[in-house]
Amino acid sequence: MITFSHVIEVPQGLHARPVASIASCLTDAASRARVRCGDMEADASDLLGLMGLDGRRGQELRFTVEGPDEEAVAERLRAVCAREL
Length: 85
Known about the structure:
Blueprint: E1 2-7, H1 16-24, E2 32-37, E3 40-43, H2 47-52, E4 60-66, H3 70-84
Antiparallel strand pairs: 1-4, 2-3, 2-4
């Protein structure tokens, strides 16, 4: 299991574009990923669940990735966070 955090830096917060990018990291993955923001948690492949986290600038997203390709999935998720959040 791999866990990592990312603080949202963009003024728009967790909006549609990064949510779609996060979910796309799991499209062909054998691993599962969860994202926590505050007291809420969502499956990283669930667009509506991710939007429901309502992540705002300055809040921390905590990712947990588990499965056979967890390292590759975690790297893709980290790249999305660095690029879009």
